[in-house]
């Protein structure tokens, strides 16, 4: 165990507050971190999709469905995997709706968000896999930003450690394990995930640009990268969780994420050997305002004067170009 002097010098402190008052409202840093992540992911996705030829801010139309369903899916997944927290004698069943108190699961948000994104893509005409590939780096960065919410809440930390980067947790915190010394340090799993996700963003940006990973394969790589890291972080966390066959539910979810990601990579590589022709499905393409399309052009010939060989040749060429 580190001495009190070393504790001050070599450990990571936790914030003393997790919320503040703004008039009659209580603002939680946890929520602000999630909102900041959503904004960053939206901006990055819009930039990447627009570069591919998508309509600027079409991502907003998709997000209107994807974000609410992601939050709902995240809460449902958390409640299902922490059933004893909300159901049973003496439990407040209405607490399942208290999202502001924490308790959302990223794997649930991926499921709900994927359903919402698929519906939004049907609405806008954008290919689902094109959107998923555009989203992948921003989504991983958003998850890194969101993890700072756990830091503010002093939650979801790992096992005790003597490492120099151990995390300080208030001994009065309800999540502080009973029987441990007040100066015990813990693995900062939030920081591990922030670093892992940050590196992953760079990997995804490189893979998308240099390896030209399209048709959903970049999103498949995202699933493999993120889920592989979660297997490790979840294995050292000590917060309560349902356990099946000796593994926490989120470890099983992370294993499933790796498997699904690998399946996407293999299947999409076999199905699509070339590059995507457009981020839009055929017949739903978007064209910038003012752009002249071949089907909108007409050929005008001055019939007040007899045609010459030059006008006949020009008309023939123009007509051929419009076909």
From TrEMBL:
Superkingdom, natural source: Bacteria
Claim: Lyase is one of the keywords in the record: no
Enzymatic class: transferase
Transmembrane annotation, as ranges: 29-46, 58-81, 93-119, 126-146, 190-208, 215-233, 245-267
EC number(s) on file: 2.5.1.145
Protein function: Catalyzes the transfer of the diacylglyceryl group from phosphatidylglycerol to the sulfhydryl group of the N-terminal cysteine of a prolipoprotein, the first step in the formation of mature lipoproteins.
Protein name: Phosphatidylglycerol--prolipoprotein diacylglyceryl transferase
Organism annotation: Microbacterium telephonicum
Name of the gene this protein is made from: lgt
């Amino acid at each position: 165990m580190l001495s009190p002097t070393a504790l001050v010098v070599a450990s990571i402190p936790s914030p003393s507050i997790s919320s503040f008052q703004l008039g009659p409202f209580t603002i939680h840093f946890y929520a602000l971190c999630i909102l900041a992540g959503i904004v960053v992911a939206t901006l990055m996705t819009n930039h990447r999709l627009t570069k591919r030829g998508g309509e600027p801010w079409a991502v907003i139309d998709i997000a209107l469905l994807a974000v609410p369903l992601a939050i709902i899916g995240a809460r449902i997944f958390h409640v299902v995997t922490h059933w004893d927290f909300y159901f049973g004698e003496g439990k407040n069943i209405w607490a399942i709706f208290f999202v502001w108190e924490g308790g959302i699961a990223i794997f649930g948000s991926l499921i709900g968000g994927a359903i919402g994104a698929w519906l939004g893509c049907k609405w806008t005409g954008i290919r689902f896999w094109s959107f998923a590939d555009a989203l992948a780096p921003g989504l991983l960065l958003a998850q890194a930003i969101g993890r700072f919410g756990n830091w503010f809440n002093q939650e979801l930390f790992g096992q005790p450690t003597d490492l120099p980067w151990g995390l300080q947790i208030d001994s009065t915190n309800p999540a502080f394990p009973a029987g441990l010394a007040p100066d015990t340090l813990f693995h900062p799993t939030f920081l591990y995930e922030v670093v892992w996700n940050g590196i992953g963003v760079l990997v995804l940006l490189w893979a998308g640009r240099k390896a030209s990973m399209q048709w959903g394969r970049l999103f498949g790589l995202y699933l493999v990268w993120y889920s592989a890291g979660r297997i490790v972080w979840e294995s050292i966390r000590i917060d309560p969780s349902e356990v099946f066959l000796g593994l926490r539910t989120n470890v099983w979810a992370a294993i499933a994420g790796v498997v699904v990601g690998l399946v996407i990579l293999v299947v999409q590589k076999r199905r699509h050997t070339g590059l995507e022709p457009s981020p839009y499905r055929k017949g739903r393409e978007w064209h910038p305002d003012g752009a002249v399309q071949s089907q909108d052009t007409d050929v005008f010939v001055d019939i007040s004067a007899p045609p010459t060989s030059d006008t006949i040749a020009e008309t023939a060429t123009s007509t051929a170009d419009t076909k």
